[in-house]
Design brief:
Layout: H1 5-16, H2 20-39, H3 45-60, H4 69-77, H5 81-94, H6 101-114
Helix pairs in contact: 1-2, 1-3, 2-3, 3-5, 4-5
Subcellular location: Endomembrane system
Protein name: Clathrin/coatomer adaptor adaptin-like N-terminal domain-containing protein
Pfam families: Adaptin_N (PF01602)
């Protein structure tokens, strides 16, 4: 079971922010934290998963950013099913459907499903 305490706290603080400006501030701070964790090669796996899930939540709320795809690919390449699931979910949300890596990820998904 994936513990999502950090994700729930973030979502609560985002929802509790009163104005659009306050929400933007919460989102910006969280994006900076996620960028820090995802750029750290020694980051613990649970921090990477949590950061990716926060980015998915932000993307679903309309925020756009140009990072996180490499971490999604690393999660997809992982051996644990929960990491793979988070990686595929995040890739579906973060990656534009018109990009060429979508075809490669589709092939990887097919291999995972047949394994």
């Amino acid at each position: 079971m994936v513990k999502l305490v950090g994700v729930w706290k973030f979502l609560r603080s985002y929802e509790d922010a009163g104005s659009k400006q306050d929400r933007d501030m919460v989102a910006h701070n969280e994006i900076m934290k996620c960028r820090k964790w995802l750029s750290d090669p020694n980051a613990p796996p649970h921090k990477v998963r949590t950061s990716i899930l926060k980015l998915v939540a932000l993307r679903l709320n309309g925020y756009d950013f140009g990072f996180g795809f490499n971490a999604c690919c690393q999660l997809i390449a992982s051996r644990t099913p929960k990491c793979k699931a988070i990686g595929y979910l995040a890739t579906a949300c973060l990656l534009p459907t018109t990009s060429s890596p979508v075809i490669m990820l589709t092939n990887t998904l097919m291999e995972d499903l047949t394994a």
